[in-house]
TrEMBL record:
It comes from Streptomyces globisporus. This is Aminoglycoside phosphotransferase domain-containing protein. Residues 1-23, 172-199 are annotated as: Disordered.
Amino acid sequence: MTTTTSTTAAPTEAVATASTAATASTADAPALIRFRPTGLDTAPEVNALLERLGLGPFAPDGLTAFGGRNDNWAGTTTRGRQVFVKTVARAPDGSRPEIDRALAFEATAARLPAGSPLRTPEHLGTDRESAVSAFRLLPGSRSGSEVALDGDFDEALCREAGRAVATLHTLGTADGASGGTSGGEAPDPASAPAIDTGEAPLPPMRWLRAFPWSEVQDRSMAQIAAWKLVQDDTEVVAALHRLRERERTAPHTPAHCDLRFDQFLVHDGQLFLCDWEEFRLADPARDVGAFVGEWLFQATYSVFAPTGEPTSAKDAVAPCFDLSHEEIVERGAAGLRHHIPRIAAFWQGYTECRTPDPELAERAVGFAGWHLYDRLIATAQAHAVLNPVARAAAGIGRTLLLNPAGAVATLRLADPAVPHPAVTPAAVLPTAVAHPAQPHPADAPSGSPR
């Protein structure tokens, strides 16, 4: 079974081990790669919260963790409850914006009726002071990243994802959203944080001009090179500014604002969406574009590393980067033909539950373009140089950012009643895919993430 982790850094003391990974496929444990969790003796606030919630402390046997940028723990308590606990970092000024945004979501989501398409793991309680939250563990669940890599994130699941995201975008936004739980106490509408109305942080517009020196030491050489792809391309920078301007005037709704495959979980045949630390009022096109971008990122990698059933004997051979122009274009178009029906199914589910504003699809294509750069920067974290596949992903992102209107129909984000065009590589695939070893114009040496 293929297993994956988030592309963000793992917790400081979370180290994968053969023994923990081997337990990932058991019937009563989530089917996600496991890590050794940070010792609870260094995080007494975890068991303190569980005790306050009446769940009992974690039993030491079988305690594990999952990948991600935040410390987390998964296991069974002494009272037999299967629980997932995670902590988030405080801001430099001591505030807890991530925990507040997550609590604002929980308060807003409390209004969802039974049977809603939007499902999320049950929130058991939060200690806001120590920024620790507890959720019901979903035994046997699989990360959406794993499901996608295994070829199981099919059109039916994509349609469910579209319905879930659309339901999120239709949630009420009245001040003082009710139903939140803080510190393990009963829901208190008066104490629920307000939904964040601040601008989403990505893309960081100040970084389009220059990379802050304070951030250099925390970035790999490949990540710095990825940022150079953006900064040195004046057309891309201008397109990102235009996208931000369109975002500011677009209708805003509750939005996830950090949507990736690994934010989805599949449990007992149902799709769950989690990780609400970036939840806020924002352009709903952000979430739609991120989902589209995830599939385009998959399609880019399938050019050089096809997954699933090989279409020919040649595809069954380990791929290399000396493919001919014709082979790359053929594989690129095949990858798009394979993944675009999933994008169309997502859009179908979305429009079944919500009527988008007339320009949402075009803005979503722009955000899909940014998403490809964002994933490029994130996945470059552990590398010294960008590989040709990463450059190809940036090339597709560039194509979408510069001409979002031109890709709406190709990506099947148009009215379902309108006949869709045949998938052709020219509409989405840039020269960077056809010639991945050659630098894209924005990647030329300048002379001298996340």
